Amino acid sequence: MEQEDDSRFDAIVIGGGLAGLSAAYTLAAEGMEVLVLERGDYPGAKNVTGGRIYVSSIRELFPDLWTKAPLERFIAHEEICVMGRDSSLNVRYDGSELLREPHQSYSILRGKFDKWFARQAEHKGATIICKTRVDDIIIENGRVVGVVAAGDRLMANVVIACDGVLSFAAGKAGLNKSADSGHFAIGFKEVIEIDPAVLEDRFNLTEDEGAARLFIGDVTAGKFGGGFLYTNKSSVSLGLVLGIGALVVEEPTVQVPELLNKFKQRSEISRLIRGGKTVEYSAHMIPEGGIKAMGKLYADGILVAGDAAGFSINIGITVRGMEYAMASGYYAARAVINAKEKNDYSAATLAVYEKFLNDSFVMTDFKNFRESLDVLKYPLLYGHYPELIVGIMKDLYEMPAGPKTRIFPTVRKHLGLRELWAMVPLCRRMMKI
Amino acid sequence: MSDLKAKLGLDVFKEDKAFPIAIKKGLERDPRLKKMVLICPAGLYGEDESGKIALSADGCLECGTCLLVCGADILDWQYPRGGAGVQFRFG
User: Fold this and answer.
1) Do A45 and B87 touch (CB under 8 A)?
2) Which of A14, A38, A41, A113 has the most B C-beta neighbours within 10 Å, making it the best mutation to test the interface with B?
3) The domain containing residue A423 runs over which residues?
4) What is this model's ipTM?
5) Measured distance CA(A204)–CA(A206) in Å, rounded
6) Does residue A6 carry a pLDDT above 80?
């Protein structure tokens, strides 16, 4: 039997991920009555990241948060690896600015971080109830007034849907985002424990430094996507991200999870994780369509933030989401605070949420990178070009038994007029991002 | 495949009495479901000799890819009840 609770919260947040906890933290800090409902055993239990958060854009939104946050390592070394079938080319970037504080990005494990962040929100006064799935939202006279969870009707002035990429809550309120498989990717990874001293030695790191590596080419068997490796304190996060649209249109020739095993067996990788022990295997769907895939962000009595709203985007060098989740949770909270001052929770008042986002880095990034996903969906980038690049390197480095060909003809052999001509449309595409 | 089972064995799962994802009756041969045999990151979809797709419940990572690919007209898809299903310790 459904029971109606007498108390009415200022806000009920569905989902204790980064968006939801950011909203709760911000609301509670302003003395608002906020309830977070999380279906996992603890906040973070259902959350997965590849492994890296860019703090620079959100530092000021949560000024007290970062000094004690359980982040893993600051990223001091960037590397891109172009993988052919049996060879690879690495480009490593080191910069003194990456070593200076404040650091722009960190490796992160969400099981650890979200649990801690939830405690910070509780210290501010938020109530967080775990092991509780929201089964429905309550709509009265066209406006959202609460949620149904564990048979209880819980009422609030505003519901903030931060229930992740599938966002059933936003859908029930009619705030659907794109369901086009081309707008989503599947990310899956292993966390592999390695002794910190060994890890630092292998990746050439000092104590708190971390490394980030991206892989493109054979690692996804030519499909749109890439591989990643992030060093944590005493583990590495190693995984793949694959565009789902391409997998649906032309079937993969191997089982998708098998690609990760092949990745681990590559000589470039196996030597890095040798002796390591896999302690977890996880997968998560990523909304990477950006602005083209987003739905409406608010209606009467409801706001949508984080992955639920589609706040994640593939910008080529990385797929970003966590910063947008935290910022959108923050701005959703500001919109609720504004609505409480006016005692009006209609869509017209909550619309300020979109204005806040438009004025911030969030929507600016989403507008600037509007075309990035379409530009990156260029099959040659994941098969032909990686092989071309490593092919050139192979011939350049080869000292045959007989005479060696001059450098220019060696390169020219790979980059004929036809090949160069074919790069023109690629360059045109690339100019859009 | 056995390697995948071993990997899933490393994760913490809390059982739900009823597994909350099911293929709707009569739709077991839908081509969209067949794609999941290759795509599901937990390898939970399998095809028998008659071309019927079956879904095994153990080891679901709750990523939602099958719901996106197949749609709600083929799959009854829900998250497990609160406190059940996979509990990521690292994530």
Assistant:
1) yes
2) A41
3) 375-430
4) 0.97
5) 7
6) no
